[in-house]
Amino acid sequence: MIIEFCAINKPEDWMEMVAEQFGTSVTDNGFTIPPSVGSGFFKQYYPLPWLTLTYISFMAYEPMTMVRRSVENSKWIPVMFYINEHKHEQIIGTSTKTVGVDTLDGIFMPSSNIPTEWTFAPKRQYENITLTFNKDWIEQMDTAHETYIGRLLLSDKSFYLFETITPAMQQVLDGIKAIAKSNAPFSPLHLHGKAIELLTIFLEKLEKRSEVKSLSNLNLNDVEAVFRVRRRILQSLNNVPSIPELAREAAMSSSKLQKCFKQVIGKAIAEYALSEKMEWAKRLLSTRLYSVSEVGYKIGYANLSHFTEAFRKYHRIKPKQYLDSL
């Protein structure tokens, strides 16, 4: 089953577009999946004229693909939170990545002109909470040009951003799920508050990118190249290729690659590689199958003291202390 959609003028129209393809209609700002297709629901809430909260929870009986088509100049910007425990595939052009609540890419915010699609395995429960805001709200703020999100939107350049779901976000997301499933008399008011809180936390996290002063006008090829480089890094964590070598693989200059990588992934290449190495080290230690020195050598450190210091700086605990705490 394939469900196709795109950014449109009103979020309400999006719900109608999707419901029709499921063979049903919208009632009370949502719809239930027909029993012949699967189970679950799609539901929207409207906290403010410029903000929509969408909560999706479904299971399909057959494989499903959702396709987001490219549209130019849409004012509506989605912030999608992958809250399902089952990971699924997100496809951008020829690049495929695995996303879910516990991945480093648990959130993504795209402009409307870069297409993407998601594939869902049958008979597995999937959930998604999306905040969709009208960019006029940001652009009309007096301080818009002083914020990362304001500069990004005012630039009118295409973008594709990823972020990680933080513990604070997870707490709010859990609250949204609980409230949405309740019939309490003031649940809509609670949901409105949670939506504002979640958006605020996300924008504050995004603001940490504010040191990026120039914004690349990314196209689909740029995004695909960044994913190729990301995959190469993940495949070679114990001996990460040099920037010039990665740039050759991306068919970009070193400076353009570093700029595009940080814009898409949210971290500089070196910072990203280090974070992945340290997460790998933590996973290895958690198995209790390796000593600290074995883990250090396994992830590419010839000097054990260098590994210990890097681990301490990243995780705020020495690897031996972490191992002993397990």
TrEMBL record:
SMART domains: HTH_ARAC
Record keywords, A-Z: DNA-binding, Transcription, Transcription regulation
Statement: the UniProt record of this protein carries the keyword DNA-binding: yes
Molecular-function annotations in GO: DNA-binding transcription factor activity; sequence-specific DNA binding
Keyword Transcription regulation: yes
SUPFAM superfamilies membership: Homeodomain-like
Residues annotated as domain HTH araC/xylS-type: 227-325
InterPro entries assigned: Homeodomain-like_sf (IPR009057), HTH_AraC (IPR018060), HTH_AraC-typ_CS (IPR018062), PchR_regulatory_protein (IPR053142)
Record-given protein name: HTH araC/xylS-type domain-containing protein
Organism annotation: Prevotella micans F0438
Higher taxonomy: Bacteria, Pseudomonadati, Bacteroidota, Bacteroidia, Bacteroidales
